[in-house]
Design brief:
heterodimer, A: mainly alpha, Cytochrome Bc1 Complex, Chain D, domain 2, 2 domains, 49% helix, B: Cytochrome Bc1 Complex, Chain D, domain 2, two-stranded antiparallel sheet
């Protein structure tokens, strides 16, 4: 027994060495990537160079993108992002679904080619199925067809959906969905209109 | 109750799939019709012809043709060159993609001004790009060739690794990286199919069909154009032409497409 363990030692040391080596390589790679990004871009209109800078969430999600997210990192990301969520100041979650449909259809906003004085869209149809009449929908996200009809409109359900729109990473670390409220992509009023698109019984999503 | 609901859902889904397939095939039909308008000709040929002329005609302050331009297979050799790019070049001591290599040849051999060349790197209506035309000509000379890119040189390996790292780099107001849109197969943005560029299947599909004549723009678009346009959608600043990141990503995609057969320039959406 004793002998066995001793014989395993060099093997364990090797595994440990390899793991440590990977950490170092990964760190070195991050510096290389950041430096290359800085050297390879130039500001264009509203797309200024600070857009290359990563916040802690983006840094962690990049670092672990090719592998499995360790649970401690997942916890850290969710904690960071949960802290950003602000419910609507007047407590009203639902706006106008017609406005929401327009925002969901609009793909412009924040690109160097976009007019920065116009409100940004949410581009929800790029990734989600919503209303039945829009067949040109993408599939990066799950279908949101009949969203409110299936889930109802209890306060917890509304708060959870608001949280998803406000900051997708609060409950799904490294989600592919933008953090629309937290990153200032959409205003509170736009988010309310999108909530109505999801939950209003009259919305085409629920028809 | 439940099964009726399931049944309706199934029917709706089936109807949806049919309409979707119809919508997609109608786009394809539109492209087919457009092709038919040109007879058997691919409009990319106009760029190829202009590119061949630019390659063979003496030009620039030094008034020479590009017969001395080495794309990796020897001076003046065009056939099959694109299928082995990007690569390490001894003379420039850099890993270069086709487009940055062309810039080197046009400036070093012909004495043309780099800033002037880059002003019209992408064509726009009446303003035609010499770099796009030359690219079309050289890419077409690799049709039917198998993608075979070497990363044996440490700098080529480093370019590949950089491309891999950049592929996952999340940034900008929307948190997008290449992997957001090209990290899984079978996904779409609206109706546009997004190839998974990490897999041989998706990478070959994407890489071997570029550059392409884009019907929606009436222009021939190259890989440098494709990459800077995806970065625009990512809400990042402007990618510099021939930059480390542009070449690293191209190396990453080209190597992942190893074994694919070049078909470009094609007609695309």
């Amino acid at each position: 027994m004793r002998n066995m363990n001793l014989r395993k030692l060099p093997f364990l040391a090797l595994v440990l060495g390899v793991l440590l080596h990977f950490e170092v390589v990964a760190d070195g790679m991050r510096d290389t990537v950041v430096a290359a990004m800085e050297a390879s871009f130039e500001a264009k209109k509203q797309a200024t160079m600070d857009r290359l800078d990563q916040d802690e969430t983006q840094t962690l999600c990049t670092q672990h993108a090719a592998g499995i997210l360790p649970s401690a990192v997942a916890e850290r990301i969710m904690t960071l992002n949960r802290a950003t969520i602000r419910p609507p100041p007047d407590g009203q979650y639902l706006g106008d679904w017609k406005g929401g449909e327009l925002i969901a259809q609009t793909g412009t906003g924040f690109q160097s080619s976009d007019d920065p004085t116009k409100p940004a869209g949410g581009n929800c149809y790029a990734c989600h199925e919503l209303s039945g009449s829009e067949i040109a929908f993408g599939t990066i996200g799950p279908s949101l067809r009949y969203y409110g009809k299936v889930r109802g409109t209890s306060p917890t359900t509304l708060a959870a959906a608001w949280a998803k729109l406000y900051n997708s990473n609060a409950h799904m670390p490294c989600s592919n969905m933008p953090r629309f409220g937290h990153r200032g992509i959409l205003t509170d009023q736009q988010l309310k209109d999108l909530m109505a698109l999801l939950f209003d019984p009259a919305s085409p999503v629920n028809q | 109750m439940k099964s009726i609901y399931g049944c309706i859902r199934g029917l709706l889904l089936a109807a949806c799939c049919v309409t979707l397939a119809w919508a997609q095939s109608s786009t394809e039909e539109a492209i087919a019709e457009y092709r038919a308008m040109f007879g058997d000709e691919n409009p990319a040929e106009l760029w190829q012809i202009r590119g061949e002329e630019l390659w063979t005609t003496p030009r620039g302050p030094k008034n020479v043709a590009l017969a001395g331009c080495d794309l990796g297979l020897g001076a003046g050799i065009v056939t099959g060159a694109y299928a082995q790019l990007p690569r390490w070049f001894e003379d420039t001591q850099r890993v270069q993609d086709l487009e940055s290599r062309l810039v080197s040849c046009l400036t070093d051999l012909q004495g043309l001004d780099e800033a002037e060349l880059l002003k019209s790197r992408f064509g726009d209506g009446a303003k035609k790009s010499d770099l796009e035309a030359l690219t079309a000509y050289i890419v077409a000379a690799s049709r039917g060739h198998t993608m075979s890119v070497s990363i044996a040189h440490p700098a080529a390996q480093a370019a590949y690794d950089l491309g891999h790292g950049v592929f996952y780099y999340r940034a900008g107001p929307h948190d997008f990286s290449c992997a957001t849109c090209h990290g899984e197969s079978g996904k779409r943005i609206r109706l546009q199919v997004l190839p998974k560029l990490l897999d041989p299947v998706g990478a070959r599909y994407a890489y071997t069909s570029w550059p392409g004549y884009r019907v929606s723009q009436g222009e021939l678009r190259t890989m440098e154009w494709r990459l800077q346009d995806c970065f625009r959608q990512q809400r990042l600043p402007q990618l510099r032409y021939g930059s480390e990141v542009a070449i690293g990503l191209t190396m990453f995609l080209a190597k992942n497409a190893e074994g694919g057969i070049m078909t470009a320039p094609n007609i695309t959406r």
